[in-house]
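Lecture 7 notes: from sequence to structure.
We start with the chain below.
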Amino acid sequence: MNLDLAFIAEALLKLLPAVPTTLLLTAVSAFCGLAAGSVLALLRFFSVPVLGRLAAGWVTVIRGTPMLTHLLLLYVGLPLLIDSVAGQLGSSWTSARIPMIAFAMLSFSITASAYGSEVIRSGLLAVSRGQMEAALSVGMTVPQALRRIVFPQALAASVPNLTNFVIGMLHASTLAFVVSVVDINAQAEIVASTNWKYFEAFLAAAVLFWAMTLVLERIGAVLEKRVSRYHRGGVA
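Predicted structure tokens for the same chain:
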């Protein structure tokens, strides 16, 4: 097999327009997943009656089922639900107006909420409960103690896992092509379809993902250095 280096370079340039879509999918799903995951983690951390068990059940179910399954269930089921509700309300609005990327974002965010919850929860468990008790003893409210004492230290302890979490969501974003979202991998297939050079096209896609992963790893390393003081018990 002769490797066409010139086509790899050409494919790299043609894949660049799809990078923003991949980054948008990653950013939205990671942010929403961590936001929802933080709530789930707190419910479990404080053993909130009923809600804590529901949160644990949610995490177990989502982590126990494939990400692709979540995407397909939403892609097939949600439009049916939306169209049914719209029909009962007498609305002419249909699910066809919803862009495919919205289904991918919602599905990825749901998956990310479970994995993000475990990342945040592990960080919370790394903080001594005495920290919370000490904060409450000096007159802080629970929200104040969480915001100023517990969460900064929990996030500091979670930086390596958070970095891996975001990288994982970046790589998982390639599943979006299943619902016709043109991300980097889908664009690679389009580029290769003109001359059947799929190996070179997907190799170019791999190079792009590798480069983005290196950037995320570097950002994670910088953040880890900046927040390492929390591991020594210091609080800003």
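Points to note: DSSP finds nine helices and no strands in the chain. The chain has a mean pLDDT of 90.
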